[in-house]
Design goal:
single chain; 459 residues; mainly alpha; Growth Hormone, Chain: A; 19 helices; 74% helix; globular
């Protein structure tokens, strides 16, 4: 069944109005984007250590990659939100994939002529592309169905990002740090040429695929139909405090996460248990695999447990594990590091879904604001690198501890606020925008489905 697109007078659709087959197709297609930037991010953290060897730079200087990559989110995310409000999710995805491919292909001359500045510039372009993809994909998955299970859906989708993040360090441990490749950039240029090709392939795929456009007008229409005009009147954007403080929490969390990952290889090598750079990169790959497993386990828990409550528990666990990494030595510190990756797993998707929940006409603007929070990854690693150069690498993990503290305050604040309004509830429960009934999935026959859809359109 064809639905109107923006600008045709129909106002688009919501995830609740899609049949299960169409919903599954859209979900699967957009999930491929998470794999794309997961692979790029996984490589970035390993290149951080590799460039220290090839170019002979300090830990602080090597964080220029993170500054460029995540700084691009601060610069480009607002534009991405404006672009998608005007042109829709699909064109936003095309723009993001185009920038991603352009940035990746210019890694070739940077590696050929061994210019660290070229790598930093290319990384910034890749970051611009990925910020656009994140605004589109995170927001799209969040609104692609019932708000009640938004965090669960996003954790499942981003689980594939974790699989790609595992593949990046695994490739690096095999090719970047062994033999003559330990001190050259030959392998890097071929890997990023392949990454560019993947971006082009996905761009072509999205061009020929029918991706249902979920608009803010349709989301507002859904709120009116299910909760009335008063609930749908969410007020001006500057009063969306859940979203604004979500941006602060996301900034601190992503900064902490990036700092932890950026110095994982250095941390493992410096633990004094005989770990080489190649072995450390392989161990880092398994840290990412632990992160991925935690994300799928978290998705299962979010089926039953309140999102803010589970985020609070995981946030406090992150604080405890980060202290363990900073204050412990040897295998105890390494064990704390693996546990830290596990408990980090659900944090980004949960903050995103909590911050963008029930925004109605502000959905894309709120999504771009939360994605701007990824910019925290631009300055946390620099602060951590400066501390690592002047103290032990493990002591530098006190920097991400501060980020986890801010995230914990946000999560606990949401739990307390919700308890004050409607009482404490351990279980996952409906929100004001809860609309996905069995009929809306087409499970009770097309007549009931069309009746529900007609009532939403009429409203």
């Amino acid at each position: 069944m064809a639905y109107p697109t923006p600008g045709t007078g129909g106002g688009g659709v919501t995830g609740s109005e899609l049949s299960f087959t169409r919903w599954l197709f859209a979900f699967s297609l957009v999930t491929t984007l998470f794999f794309t930037w997961g692979f790029s991010y996984g490589l970035l953290d390993v290149l951080n250590a590799h460039f220290q060897q090839v170019f002979g730079i300090t830990k602080l200087q090597s964080t220029m990659l993170q500054l460029a990559y995540f700084g691009a989110y601060i610069v480009f995310s607002p534009f991405a939100g404006i672009f998608m409000r005007r042109f829709g999710y699909k064109k936003g995805i095309h723009l993001g994939l185009t920038l991603y491919s352009l940035g990746a292909i210019f890694f070739w001359p940077s590696a050929k002529f061994e210019k660290y500045g070229g790598f930093v510039g290319c990384t910034f372009v890749i970051g611009c592309g990925l910020s656009c993809l994140e605004v589109a994909a995170n927001s799209y998955i969040t609104v692609l169905g019932t708000p009640r299970y938004a965090a669960m859906r996003l954790n499942v989708s981003q689980g594939f990002q974790g699989l790609a993040s595992f593949a990046g360090p695994l490739i690096a441990s095999t090719y970047f740090f062994k033999g003559k490749n330990a001190n050259t950039l030959d392998t890097v240029q071929w890997v990023y040429l392949s990454v560019s090709g993947l971006g082009v392939l996905l761009n072509v795929l999205f061009y020929f695929c029918d991706l249902p456009e979920i608009t803010e007008e349709a989301l507002t229409r859904e709120l009116v139909a299910t909760a009335g005009e008063q609930a749908a009147d969410v007020g001006p954007f500057y009063k969306q405090y859940r979203c604004i403080f979500g941006f602060v929490a996301q900034t601190c969390y992503v900064g902490a996460q990036v700092g932890v990952a950026s110095f994982t290889v250095n941390y493992l090598v410096d633990q004094g248990v005989g770990i080489s750079h190649s072995h450390a990169s392989l161990m880092f790959a398994f840290c990412q695999l632990t992160f991925t497993g935690g994300r799928f386990i978290g998705a299962a828990l979010l089926r039953f447990v309140d999102t803010a409550l589970l985020l609070s528990a995981y946030s406090m666990a992150c604080m405890a594990c980060c202290l363990g990494v900073a204050l412990s030595t040897g295998n105890r510190g390494i064990a704390s590091l693996y546990l830290l990756f596990f408990f980090e797993s659900i944090c980004y998707p949960c903050i995103f879904t909590l911050g963008t929940r029930d925004l109605g006409p502000h959905t894309k603007r709120g999504s771009s604001l939360i994605v701007m929070g990824v910019g925290g990854g631009a300055w946390f690693p620099s602060a951590q690198g400066a501390l690592a150069d002047n103290a032990y690498t493990r002591r530098s993990y006190l920097v991400p501890f501060a980020g986890y503290t801010a995230m914990t305050a946000y999560a606990i604040g949401l739990v307390v606020n919700e308890a004050a309004k409607s009482g404490f509830n351990f279980a996952n429960r409906d929100t004001v925008a809860e609309t996905m009934t069995e009929a809306s999935w087409g499970k009770e026959g097309p007549e009931v489905y069309e009746k529900d859809r007609a009532s939403v359109e009429k409203a």
